[in-house]
């Protein structure tokens, strides 16, 4: 019988509800049940769930927690419904907690439903702001109900850090570490059309977990800890991680003009950041693949697209293509008539994020050989 070990089957990049800039606000919960769909990249013989109060300012009190396989909408299959037991029912600010293992066999592509009853006012909670997945909330303790008859719908994901699965030893996990191009902005919600999902579908062994955060930067904080600060937590600490795909830098170039926070970094600054991530990843035994900075000219976000930013993008991409090592060229979705812009048929409408067709084309263009070694 093959040896089994815990590896990441699902991940989600989280941010603080108290960021000075927010794409979608977090919220508080009180005497409510929160039901969230977690689309598994990989499966195994058992599962365990990690909750996070990383950026909360109040103790997080858990009144109940259950996991089940989804049927549709907020519905669950009662035959798969299991109680989750955590080491503590109160999670202090800045802490995480992982449940005891649950005997529930799951496969890649399974939609798990996590139900949390939150009895007391949580204050604004740690969250993933734009995961392209609907969550559900209703009053009272409804964790065990097969379906929420009356529920509000939410566009963010709250209090979850990840799900681990008990899988054969040596199962390779690849981490998609970066910004909204991974988190899924621009794709159709509830269709699992995010780039890491589509890359997973192409693999015959292993899978990608998603640590993308929209508007995240390589070098400095703005939404979420910057990549250099969160790399250890969101990549190196991921159980089973063997490879990492990076897409970072666009927000370093565009956010300063959009939010009025100063000048963008130089190409040398970006190169230094990528070099440091590569050093740390390779020292830990990971294969590190960098994506070139995707095209974004003409984006609808005021102040984001500047001549200086475009010049830095070209210089950084030239270095990534020739000096970094294994790389994925995101110019595969550029307009041949103007490589600084997205192809019109791939554009979600804001001229920086891909629609479902564009994400599929990008996924097909990426050489997955480095992720199969």
TrEMBL record:
Chain segments annotated as transmembrane: none
Domain SGNH hydrolase-type esterase: 176-360
Gene3D superfamilies per the UniProt record, alphabetical: SGNH hydrolase
Name the record gives this protein: Lysophospholipase L1-like esterase
Organism: Saccharothrix texasensis
Source organism phylogeny: Bacteria, Bacillati, Actinomycetota, Actinomycetes, Pseudonocardiales
